[in-house]
Amino acid sequence: MKFPEELKYTEDHEWLRLEGDMATVGITDHAQHELGDIVYIDINTLGDTLAQNEVFGSVEAVKTVSDLFLPVAGEVLEINPALDSAPEAVNNDPYGEGWIIRMKVSDPAEADGLMSADDYKKFVGA
């Protein structure tokens, strides 16, 4: 499993790539592996400003549906358009083509409270 060092991670298995006050969010390699084959991504919060840890959508796999939680507070600006026709991109490339949303972060300092790659590795027992 991959744990890119430049990302921040949550206990709910989302990752955050912070670039100034903009961020890209997805689910971790560990999470996609646990969920199995992803068949649908449901995000209905485009344009909404949400609090840290608020549900911004859900991911549907063959065996289950799982909520997606915002790693930091901010506004959902973009949903990955490729996921409509190819949700399996989350399985195949969770940190690249399988990103889920892009957002404007309200307070970039909130990311300081998230886990590093090493912390997340320990958290999932890898």
Automatic annotation (TrEMBL):
Superkingdom to which the source organism belongs: Bacteria
CC annotations in GO: cytosol; glycine cleavage complex
Entry-linked CDD domains: GCS_H
Coiled coil: none
Cofactor(s) required for function per UniProt: (R)-lipoate
Cofactor note: Binds 1 lipoyl cofactor covalently.
Protein function: The glycine cleavage system catalyzes the degradation of glycine. The H protein shuttles the methylamine group of glycine from the P protein to the T protein.
Protein name as it appears in the record: Glycine cleavage system H protein
Organism: Salmonirosea aquatica
